[in-house]
Amino acid sequence: MGREIELTVTVEEVIYRSADQRFAVLRASVEGAPQVITLVGALGSVAPGDPISVHGRLERHATFGEQIVVSSFTPVTPQTREGIRRYLGSGRVPGVGPAIADRIVEKFGERTLEMITTQSSRLREVSGIGARRATAIADAVRAHAADAQVFSFLHGLGIGNALSQRIVNRYKADTVRVVREEPYRVAEEVRGVGFLTADRIGRQLGYTLDDPRRAAGAVLHLLGRGADEGNVYLPRDLLVEQAQALEVPHERASEALDVLHARGMLIIDGDAVYAPPLYSAEVSAARKLQALAEHPNTLPPAIPEALLEGLAPAQRDAVRASFVHRLYVLTGGPGTGKTTTVRALVAAQRAQHKRVLLCAPTGRAAKRLSEATGAEAATIHRALEYNPKTGAFQRNADLPLDADVVLVDEASMLDLVLGERLLSALSKTASLVLVGDVDQLPPIGAGPLLRELISSNACPVIRLTVIFRQAQRSAIVRAVSFHSPTSVIGADTRTSGCSDCSKRSKCAAASAGKLGSSAFSKRAEESVRSPRRAEVLRTVPAWNAATSSRSWDVAPVTFERSPPMIPARATGVAPSQISRSLGSSARV
């Protein structure tokens, strides 16, 4: 372990800079010292000619020799004639090269930078500098001086270089004011600044435990943490209780909820508290799923018997269902023939000249799907043409997917936000088939879409129960299937026959009303609270599994509650009347 060292240097050369512009290896000189030193660390924003104050450890590398591993640095203003000359001529100041830098320093000496920032018009006394160039030079020098002050302020609060740079990039010239007056806002708007960091800053700046701004920051932090744990929303009482664990008084936490709701920074629906992006995604997904479930296809084609050869009755029903329903789920435990069914389904759809898009939440799942079907498959992000630079999907309602049928395999990993994006990109006539086992991997984001859709009974669910793999000889497979909760979650176990199915199977009826929009909380079965359901009377076509027809009755629509992970802690989402139909089932 090397010794701690702090000194002011001038950067001479950038030896290496990482692609993400964060890490760098620099050569720097110390005024009065004959040799250069090597600096390594989060120095990506530093350029040759920059004077900086560095703090770090002096270590000896086995290959590269002695170097300073920088833990923090602060831009500084050079004080000597040579330092000012090198700073001005480094290329950081527009319109100034080494020759002009020499003339400026020769004219104004050690007061050069002071004169530039306070009497910039005098720069025109130097040969080669006009009014426009003088203004540009003054602006650049002032900006550098301001940066030095800002970084010094942030470092004084114990904030490291990388985090300081992100804060400065976000707030620019307003950085000091925002951090000083609204440190808890920084926690919600800058990646890497959590509530604990903001609270440490706030306490250093004199914020008390019962400060309303601290209470608001704690509530937003808890809501974000809940989403990271898989919850789409949190009950109001639970939020207030958790806030007290952060030393926020009960009254302050309750007041903060109401204030944040009024400001559009969270949504309160009954006793449920949402982050706006999750609330918006939940309502949108609920509407789109309901629209698909309510409008089945008409006049399904006859499927050649050759395409159904070798399939069990339930598998045949699954293939036929893809022509009848615009939304349905194919589920079953391991070894029950989901892959075989998907292969036949794709072949049958293509035999009818339908455009089939195969996708899955992960690259590995997409590759397995492609190998199983012999057709191209992609990740959902790739299918939706995700742009990592903008964070947006190119495929949406304005540019829908070129597919008549979209089949998602391993749908247990599909979370609410991504599911809503996929639903938004379906064409007006497209069908959606979700294939998966809810007892497999859950989504990383909040809201297990497949589980909630199955438990809602909002669409047909074909459950494969016959074990084919290993000819039923595997005790493990039998045990998994026997104990699988999917045999009871949301299942309609009555034996029914659809007019479009020649065989009879256990198929969950899409009984009008329970569109699983809300209990999207991950692992909802672990909830210690009983689900609350708010019912709204709407005219919904109730599906009659026995007659394969719809009766337009007034039926209660029930939405189970839950949102996805908070994307970018955005604020402001227009409330929707559908929110009144959202129920609850949060995991606590």
Folded structure, characterized:
The chain is α/β, with parallel strands linked by helices and 588 residues long. Among the domains are: 1-76, Nucleic acid-binding proteins (OB fold (Dihydrolipoamide Acetyltransferase, E2P), Beta Barrel); 182-274, Arc Repressor Mutant, subunit A, CATH 1.10.10; 277-510, P-loop containing nucleotide triphosphate hydrolases (Rossmann fold). It is 37% helix and 19% strand. It has helices spanning 81-88, 98-108, 112-118, 131-156, 161-171, 175-181, 183-189, 195-204, 212-228, 236-245, 250-262, 276-294, 305-308, 313-324, 338-351, 363-373, 380-383, 416-424, 449-456, 475-483, and strands at residues 3-17, 24-29, 37-41, 51-61, 65-75, 233-235, 267-269, 272-274, 327-332, 356-360, 377-379, 386-387, 392-393, 405-408, 431-435, 461-464, 495-496, 505-508, 535-544, 549-558. The strands form five sheets. Strands 11-10-14-15-9-16-18-17 form an eight-stranded mixed β-sheet, sandwiched between helices. Strands 1-2-3-5-4 form a five-stranded mixed barrel. Strands 6-8-7 form a three-stranded antiparallel β-sheet. The protein is elongated, with a radius of gyration of 31 Å. The protein starts with a strand and ends in a 30-residue tail after the last strand. Residues 482-588 have low confidence and may be disordered.
